[in-house]
Amino acid sequence: MVKTKENRYIPKNKQNGQVKGHKKIWIENVKYLTKAEYQELIAAMRQYSRPHLVKRNVLLTAIALNNGLRASDVVTLRVGHVLNKTRVKIIEQKTGKTKQLFWNNCQTEIQDYLQSYDYQDENDFLFPGNQNGHYSVHGFYQMVVRIARKTGNEQLAAKIGTHSFRKTFGRQLYQNGTDVEIISQLFNHSSQRVTRHYLGIEQEDLDKVVENFNFNL
Predict the structure, then answer these.
(1) What pLDDT, in 10s, does the model give residues 52-79?
(2) From CA 59, how far away is CA 101, in angstroms rounded?
(3) 3-class DSSP state of 19
(4) Are 156 and 41 spatial neighbours (Cβ–Cβ below 8 Å)?
(5) Helix crossing, 54-67 with 107-116: angle to 10°?
(6) Is the pTM value of this prediction over 0.70?
């Protein structure tokens, strides 16, 4: 456990509390993206990524957002998870729980990427790299931060991280009227309160209670 300056305790894990240079990056500092911000990020990704990495970077982001996945689950996917499939079950790296993934919202990105990827068989990592054969979580993080900075949008750059896509997924479901209990189950969270806090809903509800309070009513 790591104690912050505000005397709040935040659990430390592979994606939370990593030292990046002289800073510690916390999941709580990473925010969800608006639709406009996401579109701006993807446009910059297509413009500023190295030509042979454009399709990879776009697919990484599309999979993370459309299934609300942690970066550790995205980078360890294998070709067989997406090849000729519309859905697949995986075991989450962090929780060890089963999660169903759907590819209907990123089929175009999958097909574009596979056409240019010279894989050997279905057991090959979908995103090859130097971390045990696959692209690293830190590499994914560095890529999205670098691209976000290229947009020139300081607000976007300040809140971006790999968890932005997971939070955007959950936030969009909530805004579309999906019950928090269902979102909590999709995230494999231990409780609805964890989900509400993760998405920033808890604090918003608390703020509304105080904002709308009138003793004279």
Answers:
(1) 999 999 999 999 999 999 999 999 999 9
(2) 14
(3) strand
(4) yes
(5) 150
(6) yes
